[in-house]
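Sample entry (337 residues):
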Amino acid sequence: MNTNNGKNVLVTGAGGFIGTVLCKRLVEDKFNVTGLAMPGEKTENLEQMGVAIVRGNLTMPETIRGICDGIDTVYHLAARVTYWGTRKEFYDTIYEATKNMLEEAAGRVRSFVYVSSVVAIGLGPEHHKGHRENDPVRKTGIFYGDAKLDAEGLVWNYHRDGKISGTVIRPTNVIGPASVWVRDAVDNLNNPFLPLIDGGRWSASLLYVDNLVDALVLAGIKEIAAGQTYHIRDDYSATWRQYFTDIAGLMGKNVKATTFFSIPFALAWPSAGFVGTICAALHIKTTMTRHNVAMMGRDNDIDNSKAKRELGWNTRVTYEDALRRIGAWMKKEGLAP
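Predicted structure, serialized as tokens:
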């Protein structure tokens, strides 16, 4: 194991939405940050922060040899972050990539923080309100969630074998400037009609990106986090209907200009299974996937008390402040007046 001062960290997926915010926080906290980026990926903003860039493709292990030399903590974020695609696409970029990263980290780093997802618990027809870290999990055929769950298993195999000290973080739906949950909301609200599962009545289970980063930093430095899984969800009460209404307000839209209409979950779930399968086979992007239906059509307010109790984590950025920050970004991007 590396015996450095604990301040040398590697962030995979450093150029992504969450990775960029995490790198910025780590640099501000005086960590020596190395970011893994894909060959050809733009990294000027990271370099200006003071992040050292290494390049490689996690699905090609020969390209990442030696990236953990001198590293104390790995934050593994890199993954296929979308709601559509084939099983192979998700497993290559999530499961196989995690296996390659773990093999490179084994025996070299002190701690390995894996960013999984709430989807890994087995989202589907059931509600998951109050689901705890030690409650049963299962695969439901949502490739993203299935691959994340299997990747968690890899982390625990390496942890049990003493090759790494692992921690798993399961975030809910991460919002913030440039988040897919913001960009997609804006795109959908520019349409005359917006379908909402069960009328958008269920909790949106939101998590502001800075609050997630708080949890990631704590998981990387707290000894109690070793060998633990943590559910990270903000204490926001917004339903999906409220969230879309609020984003519409930031866009300067009267919500009546976009007609919300309800699709019953009992209809949406089987329909998404059929449409998603066909579109994935034809490599056609669609929002009608079981991933989206399970996210928006069930109450996924998983229990977050363990992170509060053991890590000292809390919802630092309120929902109102999160909306103000998102609104400022939207104005900068020309998405709001």
